[in-house]
């Protein structure tokens, strides 16, 4: 039986895809062995095309709709388009959905941060506190990405439980190969032969890049550098201009890295610093361990579910504990090989093939 799925794919309708885009990209990629599946990808930025995997059975539909300030593309433009199309269901992948649902709708609700961080304005209250909950009541199914997010969602809307499914993200298969990927040349030049740690997460306050810098500044390894990833061009310029003198030359801000370049960066690191205070999932905690690198984080939110053999769990605000963990990561000796082997086995339970199979089961349930 054919399965025609509309997919909100604005996270692929961009120059560079990030965490949410990686999720949608992997769904499409793992559908190649299912010729009965056909995707129609919706985007709203006509300056860019769609970043899509070769070989997937899909077509793209990028269109604009006036009133973006009022979410008119999502609430009016997309439903109008859906009404005229031969689509079995819509998957809204980005944590929001339209109140008007001319087709059965599945939504991925990654976490509840949008409600916790929304501005206290009339428009935001109407949208997040009234429109989206009403749309959730109407939708066919809700997917979330961790048990932590499931708990947070049901605390707000306990009536969602019968149609809520937890489907964790996966890990790129390239982490399980012997690829010889190279670091970004300019970044490699800046690092030179120095040991380094990696921070991922961008400039958002709850991700705490400043804390990662404090850890490096407090370390007794004065040749240790910190590579910060996830900052856009404007954020990089601001951060470089505000960098204190004692960290200049020690803190490097990476430009956008391809997946292969990021894996190479991971593999050469002494440790990954991941000081975020909340994540719906937390890709870096998983990717670092898959790459064979100790990752230092606090057991907050969904990160409690990602404590593997190479995780070093520390209190979120204990600087001495972070510094000690960083130094311990650099002195594991022969113990590290055992930890790396255990991590490689542990991380395999986070497979995109399993995630795709669970999504397909949801689609068929809704379709059937």
TrEMBL record:
<dbReference type="GO" id="GO:0009103">
    <property type="term" value="P:lipopolysaccharide biosynthetic process"/>
</dbReference>
<dbReference type="InterPro" id="IPR028098">
    <property type="entry name" value="Glyco_trans_4-like_N"/>
</dbReference>
<dbReference type="Pfam" id="PF00534">
    <property type="entry name" value="Glycos_transf_1"/>
</dbReference>
<feature type="domain" description="Glycosyl transferase family 1">
    <location>
        <begin position="195"/>
        <end position="346"/>
    </location>
</feature>
<protein>
    <recommendedName>
        <fullName>Glycosyl transferase family 1</fullName>
    </recommendedName>
</protein>
<dbReference type="Pfam" id="PF13439">
    <property type="entry name" value="Glyco_transf_4"/>
</dbReference>
<feature type="domain" description="Glycosyltransferase subfamily 4-like N-terminal">
    <location>
        <begin position="18"/>
        <end position="173"/>
    </location>
</feature>
<dbReference type="InterPro" id="IPR001296">
    <property type="entry name" value="Glyco_trans_1"/>
</dbReference>
<keyword id="KW-0808">Transferase</keyword>
<dbReference type="GO" id="GO:0016757">
    <property type="term" value="F:glycosyltransferase activity"/>
</dbReference>
